[in-house]
Specification:
By secondary structure, this protein is mainly beta. Helix content is 13%, strand content 48%. The chain contains eleven helices and 41 strands. The strands form seven sheets. It has a 24-stranded antiparallel beta sheet that branches. Strands 1-6-7-4-5 form a five-stranded mixed beta sheet. α5 runs antiparallel to α7.
């Protein structure tokens, strides 16, 4: 399956032309949808009028004629995962019903769950997973750029956003039942997004890949046999201009095959300004299309075929400097600190209020942009046997291409005022295939069982090209004469390649037995076989003094490694139901984050090892699930304790040239413990509220083989992080919101029939995150301060839900906060990526 793809980089002008063409295409699609819907309704009305005239001219019909409808409407519904929570909401009441159904889906399941419903998505203008995390306090998502992404639940999943080609994330993400192998592949906008649910703690026996922190299920709307068209447009701050279109219905007049076609174009200008060139960074441009077929050729058989494509382009990840050290923590002076090196290399001045005003002093030349493509197909076949047992098969093939165009400072613009690199790129051409077959017994029986087999193949070829500029040679070669640093570094390049290949096969079974009407036991077992192989090779070219260049790039190496593991995992739950509204459960669950291979410039003398052990989590969870007021109010509480052995993290060593080489290692023991509260429902008529809160104390119970952070890197030997919080974990997280909806006729007297059928709604949301370390070294300069964000929205819509007009504000108080913080050892510089500033806009949706 491996194939070397020659990068075909488009110029900025070419990409702008492509974006303009894409926007015009989607605009024309929206116009065609509106026009076709109007013509169809006009024709339908004319036909109905003609039929009525014909009928009225005839004699009355004798008695009653049996009403004929689509054949599938009279068949018993085939229970299939593709129909679980994906029905569309075409009215306000339908949306509420769908949302309640999404929440109730897991209310009897002995697992802690937070659900983002279809109504939540619409209310908060959510079109992707990063936007949804503001409603998911137990989920932390750190994005340095789409390739460098970490997704965590309860502090577990990944220790850093740094890309790890030889590992899978400990948090498993699925879209319509298909496992997404790379975190970056789930960051873009998703067509037909219908809901998101987070199942916390190991969920190995539910199928898919093994995991030790939990799973995130993302569902999208399936095709409908009822013809429907939807157009949504947004406009807001920083030239936010989005359009989404969707068409669905029966193929021809068939009652057995339905289709859906959808697409989107999402665009926003940047907000971080380079004061040297007046160019703005942190923009966002994504384009996507999706086609689906849903077939029901016979009773009990459901087939869903999905094909999708998404292209993301952004000038991202430009980061203002936060700190530049001149001394180590013990008072020793840092030779060649940033200020000395920058003055020698001729850097542009650092803006005085860079963080407050979102300013950076980038170089006058150079570029900073990334492109990402994801596409694939999946086939989901569900069949209900005559004895009510169900078979389901999900097969998929997907590709993720990542090709940056970085030519600034270390790929992130993190050395202020300097262009250190003319190229600093990792190009990844990942491919994967998954296959899962499962069988389930009939529901609502005393004993139920589900079993299956899962297989995954993945290869992640990565091509690395880094080249130092003349200015970079002066900065990185500080302390040497021009003759030496130019000979060693000016124009010197590192060329490297790695290609890890993973094969995994696993079998699992999960069962439930009702001991009495109130007491039941539920459990499962899984056994996984994992094989990984891959190598890393690097070389230095165009350097007259390779040894000095190696102090910047790391020494050239070439090695091949393999990793094999076979690990059991499972779960056991005891459930007590006082009645249909109140449930108490206790669960033990074991999950595994697969180990893998180190794929970096390894230096064995520094303690690095090509093999990374698997991370194993033994979790204990106790939960209460309650519904009140005829299931209009949900209140769930959970306490948990995770014992994690061989927690996968990283260590580093520092070269004499001022480069940090990080590699994967294992911490002996981590504990993650805490409690969670999820409540939502109708407080009074018209007023809905929700609150999700979590306390997570995730810390190193034993990690004595860590390496020193940058500020104490002048001290030799190992460093202990025992007792410290694990990176990326905030102890306290909160997400809460209120929305009030009232008929306009109740606000003021009006006899206008148009206004009397309208609903007015207004809402506000607040989220809070306490402090956390943003980097595995846990330097005190990478600790991100607590922050809270306030959002609000207001709008009107008719009772029918035919259209919706709203206005929104995100980060309304314009809070300045960081989402990443990283160190650069060459010059002892720390820099951070800012979160989005205040943004305001409006959205209009029309449904036909």
């Amino acid at each position: 399956m491996s194939a070397v793809r020659t990068p075909a980089f488009k110029s900025v002008a070419d990409r702008s032309s492509l974006d303009l063409l894409s926007r015009r295409f989607l605009f024309c699609s929206a116009v065609l949808i509106l026009a076709s819907s109007w013509l169809e309704k006009t024709a339908s009305a004319r036909t109905n009028a003609e039929m009525q005239n014909v009928t009225s001219s005839k004699l009355p019909m004798p008695r009653a004629t049996k009403r004929q409808g689509p054949t599938h409407a009279h068949k018993p519904a085939a229970v299939s995962p593709v129909e679980s929570v994906r029905s569309e909401a075409v009215s306000v009441h339908g949306a509420i019903s769908t949302s309640r159904r999404q929440i109730l889906k897991r209310q009897n399941d002995p697992v802690s769950v937070t659900t983002v419903t279809e109504k939540d998505l619409q209310t908060h203008q959510i079109t992707n997973l990063p936007q949804a995390t503001k409603l998911l306090p137990s989920v932390s998502l750190q994005v340095s750029n789409p390739r460098n992404t970490a997704i965590n639940i309860r502090g577990l999943g990944n220790f850093s956003s740094t890309a790890q080609d030889g590992l899978e994330n400990g948090t498993a993400v699925y879209i319509d039942g298909v496992y997404q192998t790379r975190p970056g592949a789930v960051l873009g906008d998703i067509s037909d997004l219908a809901g998101i649910e987070v199942l916390k703690g190991p969920q190995a026996t539910r199928g898919g890949i093994d995991n030790d922190s939990g799973i995130i299920n993302i569902t999208t709307l399936a095709p409908s046999f009822k013809r429907q068209y939807t157009v949504t447009g947004d406009y807001g701050s920083y030239n936010t201009a989005n359009i989404r279109v969707r068409a669905t219905g029966a193929v021809g007049n068939s009652d057995k095959v339905a289709y859906s076609l959808s697409g989107f174009s999402m665009n926003r200008d940047g907000y971080v300004k380079n004061v040297t060139t007046n160019k703005y960074y942190q923009d966002y441009h994504t384009l996507g299309a999706k086609a689906q077929l849903l077939a029901k050729p016979m009773e009990g058989l459901t087939i869903r075929l999905i094909g999708d494509y998404t292209h993301l382009r952004e000038s991202c990840c430009i980061t203002p400097m936060t700190t530049a050290l001149s001394t180590y923590s013990n008072g020793e002076a840092i030779s060649g600190n940033y200020w000395d090196r920058a003055a020698y290399a001729g850097a542009e001045p650092v803006p005085k209020h860079g963080v407050r005003d979102m300013l950076v002093s980038g170089p006058a030349s150079g570029s900073q942009a990334v492109d990402q493509e994801t596409y694939g197909v999946s086939l989901n076949v569900g069949y209900q046997l005559p004895n009510q047992w169900k078979l389901e098969n999900i097969a998929s093939w997907r590709t993720w291409f990542w090709y940056p165009h970085n030519a600034l400072s270390d790929g992130a613009g993190n050395t202020p005022g300097l262009q250190l690199w003319s190229a600093d790129n990792n190009q990844v051409y990942e491919q994967n295939a998954t296959e899962e077959l499962r069988i389930s017994s009939p529901e609502n029986r005393r004993y139920q069982v589900t079993g299956g087999v899962f297989y995954m193949y993945e290869e992640v070829p990565d091509y690395i090209h880094n080249t130092i500029t003349a200015q970079g040679a002066k900065y990185l070669g500080y302390g040497y004469s021009p003759e030496i640093y130019n000979a060693a570094l000016n124009g010197a390049s590192q060329l490297a390649h790695d290609n890890p290949v993973t094969n995994e096969v696993a079998g699992y079974v999960r069962s439930k037995y009702k001991i009495t009407s109130k007491l039941e036991v539920e459990g499962g077992f899984r056994y996984s076989f994992v094989s990984k192989s891959g190598g890393y090779s690097s070389r230095i070219v165009n350097s007259a003094i390779p040894a000095m260049a190696a102090d910047v790039f790391g020494a050239p190496v070439s090695y091949h490694a393999t990793h094999r593991e076979h690990e059991p995992s499972g779960s056991l739950s005891i459930v007590y139901r006082a009645n249909e509204n109140h449930m108490l459960y206790a669960t033990y669950s074991r999950g595994v984050r697969n180990g893998g291979i180190n794929l970096v410039n390894l230096d064995i003398t520094e303690g690095a090892n090509p093999d990374v052990k698997p991370e194993i989590n033994d979790m204990f969870e106790f939960g209460l699930k309650n519904t009140f007021l005829h299931k209009r109010l949900f209140v769930n509480a959970t306490a948990f304790w995770n014992n994690v052995h061989n927690y996968i993290t990283s260590a580093s060593y520092y070269t004499s040239g001022g480069t940090t080489i990080s590699y994967l290692t294992n911490a002996k023991h981590v504990i993650s413990r805490g409690f969670e509260l999820d409540a939502r429902g109708v407080i009074i008529p018209g007023l809905e509220g929700r609150v999700s809160a979590s306390y997570t104390d995730a810390f190193y119970a034993s990690f004595n083989n860590a390496t020193h952070p940058l500020e104490s890197s002048n001290i030799g030997g190992l460093y202990s992080l025992t007792g410290n919080q694990v990176p990326l974990n905030s102890k306290w997280n909160l997400s809460t919101g209120l929305e009030y909806t009232v008929p306009i006729k109740n606000i003021g007297a009006t006899n206008n029939p148009f206004w009397r059928k309208l609903l007015f709604y207004v809402g506000a949301d607040y989220r809070y995150r306490s402090q956390y370390y943003a980097e595995p070294s846990e330097s005190r300069y990478t600790r991100i301060k607590p922050y809270g964000i306030l959002d609000a929205h207001v709008g009107i819509r008719p009772e029918s839900g035919k259209w919706d007009l709203s206005f929104w504000g995100h980060n309304m108080l314009d809070k300045r906060y960081f989402v990443t913080m990283t160190s650069l050892s060459a010059g002892a510089v720390f820099y951070g990526q800012l979160g989005d500033p205040a943004m305001f806009g409006g959205e209009f949706t029309y449904r036909m």
